[in-house]
Task: structure prediction
Amino acid sequence: MIDLEKVCFAYENEIALRYIDLHIEKGDSVIVQGPNGCGKSTLIKLLNGIIFPSEGEYLYKGHAITEKALKDRKFAKWFHQQMGYVFQNADTQLFCGSVEEEIAFGPVQMGLSEAEVHERTEDCLKLFGIEKLRERPPYHLSGGEKRKVSLACIISLNPEVLILDEPLAGLDEKTQDMLIEFLQNFHKAGKTLITITHNRQLAELLGTRFALMNEDHELNMI
Result:
């Protein structure tokens, strides 16, 4: 499903990824671990098509993911619907005037009918228990509430792959438990998870495969 072959990436002259080989099958739950600065967040950006390999190849379902390929609007729309990326800082992801508008934004951009947009929005509000927040501006919410809304926004697109960067960071225990249960159910439904985390409990509860990155920006499956 996801194949990286000898992928390298550098910020100017600073190496971030060094000859990365990574193969992820549909239904895997991959935990990405490693010290700060080893390239984990860069890897996530690359998987989401935000940056592109300077060497090597990235294939998703057999399609080469390149800057040129994602200039095709139809292909880019398909790819970004497949890959759900939940940012570590929810503030960078939320920008609409209300929670309801925020969740509906993605389905509207997909060109879904008004009825389908409404159904997906309502389903996600109920799924995360945030119906009472529907008219609230996202910037007035707590950290946990923002995390729920950012997840609802991604799930409204029904992605095949969900990618998370330290998803439990800054959340209270109740919200952490809710999120862990949701991610376990998402994975049980046959979806693919890729999670960066230093949290051992989360890694043990979610991980079926483990990718360890080192200070030389290399990756090994363990």
Summary: The mean pLDDT is 93.
